[in-house]
């Protein structure tokens, strides 16, 4: 079974394995580590696979997608509400076709959520919220890899950096489904139905360190169904990050880069892009 847009855009799985989702990237004289982040976990997923700790301990600096501290600021919360909710008389019901709105209402009723709670949310935020509801139902309620290592790095006084501002990330989310809101919601409703049955398969693939399976089950249908969103969320951002990553590989400092797991696989994923540049990519085995 293939996975699609919403689950791919919010891949928040709690996965624990012997092969950490961490890769060592080297050239002739410099090294960095790059790991796939899972933005929300279950309590049972701690402690994390020790490959993450190995890379963290080796690194002089930790680099995240964005400034994690700023994500919880009042200023960012206000900006998010401005970008992801309707600020005028428009509502979700006035945006969607009646049959799509009814299907969404029925799904939310099955989750004990009144549709009125969603009326002022733009479809992009509705799609993400639908996934988050399912993850919470499955017990994924704890902080993820990136937040976990941000907290540790703060305590250790370790140097930190990031690729994008929170505002840039917000813009990516806001664009999801833009101009095709009705199809986006219909697709999202079908997508979230797959989440419970996909978890076991994804856990097995992750334990094997099978990056190609992650591509097959999470990205291929996404790319085919919504190529523009795929390009905005993954491909363009990966290419935007590459110059910074290559600069890191020209200095003696060792970085541990933590980015969303789905930035790693596929022909435009970071691992293939780095390999195409001539860097040596080696998956980090769990040292323990």
Automatic annotation (TrEMBL):
Q: Where is the signal peptide?
A: 1-19
Q: For this UniProt record, give its keywords in alphabetical order, as a comma-separated list.
A: Signal
- Return the InterPro entries for the record: TraB/PrgY/GumN_fam, YbaP-like
Q: Which Pfam families match?
A: TraB_PrgY_gumN
Q: What domain of life does the UniProt record list for this protein's source? A: Bacteria
Q: Does the keyword Signal apply?
A: yes
Q: Which PANTHER family match?
A: CYTOPLASMIC PROTEIN (PTHR40590:SF1), CYTOPLASMIC PROTEIN-RELATED (PTHR40590)
Q: What is this protein called?
A: TraB/GumN family protein
Question: Where does this protein come from, organism-wise?
Answer: Alteromonas ponticola
């Amino acid at each position: 079974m293939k996975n699609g847009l919403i689950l791919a855009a919010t891949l928040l799985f709690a996965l624990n394995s012997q092969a950490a989702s961490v890769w060592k990237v080297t050239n002739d004289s410099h090294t960095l580590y790059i790991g796939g982040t899972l933005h929300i976990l279950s309590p049972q997923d701690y402690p994390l696979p020790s490959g993450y700790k190995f890379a963290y301990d080796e690194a002089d600096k930790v680099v995240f997608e964005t400034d994690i501290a700023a994500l919880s600021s009042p200023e960012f919360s206000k900006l998010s509400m401005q970008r992801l909710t309707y600020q005028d008389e428009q509502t979700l019901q006035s945006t969607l076709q009646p049959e799509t709105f009814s299907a969404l209402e029925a799904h939310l009723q099955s989750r004990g959520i009144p549709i009125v709670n969603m009326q002022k949310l733009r479809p992009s935020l509705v799609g993400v919220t639908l996934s988050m509801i399912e993850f919470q139902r499955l017990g994924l309620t704890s902080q993820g890899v990136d937040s976990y290592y941000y907290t540790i790095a703060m305590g250790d006084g370790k140097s930190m950096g990031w690729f994008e501002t929170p505002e840039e990330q917000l813009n990516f989310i806001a664009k999801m489904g833009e101009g095709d809101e009705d199809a986006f919601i219909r697709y999202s409703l079908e997508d979230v139905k797959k989440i419970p049955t996909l978890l076991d398969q994804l856990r097995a693939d992750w334990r094997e360190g099978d990056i190609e399976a992650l591509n097959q089950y999470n990205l291929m249908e996404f790319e085919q169904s919504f190529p523009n969103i795929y390009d905005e969320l993954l491909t363009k951002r990966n290419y935007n990050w590459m110059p910074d990553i290559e600069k890191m590989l020209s200095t003696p400092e060792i970085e541990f880069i933590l980015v969303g797991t789905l930035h790693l696989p596929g022909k435009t994923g970071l691992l293939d892009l780095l390999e195409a540049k001539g860097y040596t990519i080696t998956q980090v085995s769990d040292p323990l």
